[in-house]
Amino acid sequence: MDTGLAGKVVLITGGTRNHGRASALAFAKEGAHLLICTRRSMDLLEETAALAAKSDVRVVTDRCDVTNESQVNALVRKGITEFGRIDIVVNNAGWRARGALLDITSESWNATLATNLHAPFLLCKSVMPSMVANRWGRIINYSGIASFRGASGATAKMACEGFTRGIANAYGKYNITANLIGPGSIAVERTPGQEIPAGQGTATENIPIGCRSHTEATN
């Protein structure tokens, strides 16, 4: 099946592992060129790039703190310089403070909102002029079960849903779509400090099919 992705340019944030790496490899298999970034391990990002490049596509990597406006703007400029345009944006980078209201610090609250809400705003705002000029674009944001659990995670993801709808309504006339993906329970490798404490994870008996999914299933 022709997905129409061959030759498209896809920008993916948080491309070192899990959803980000799986998305990069899936797009590469369809013939899309990639601009992937991370604010952490460039070694892991280069691993993703090497795996994606096996699909005979061009892959550009960069370090970027997606909560920093100047770095986001520089990332978009790099993509347009390298490829001439950016067709698809996948706002994959995420962070979630765990716990109920009284357990969350102001720092964790702000970090969650910055990564899950402010970062997509910055990237979409930066890339939108190019998409409008080209009269084509695709925005993919992430929601998930965090939209219904916890204080900070739910707040950021619910807000991102409204933000995504706003983009779709305002820019659909330019052949630009914006969609929110809400994955279920997926077993992922977690950043140190974000591990799920024993007894607080999603129990498989509460999942209709009886098991959690894995990012490798996308490929």
UniProtKB/TrEMBL annotation:
* Cited CDD domains: SDR_c
Q: What InterPro entries does this protein map onto?
A: NAD(P)-bd_dom_sf, SDR_fam
**Where does the chain cross the membrane?**
none
- Lineage, top-rank taxon, reads Bacteria
| Secretion signal span | none
One GO molecular function term of this record is: oxidoreductase activity, acting on the CH-OH group of donors, NAD or NADP as acceptor
Q: Which PANTHER family match?
A: SHORT-CHAIN DEHYDROGENASES/REDUCTASES FAMILY MEMBER
Q: Which family does it belong to?
A: Belongs to the short-chain dehydrogenases/reductases (SDR) family.
**Descriptive protein name:** Short-chain dehydrogenase
Organism of derivation: Entotheonella factor
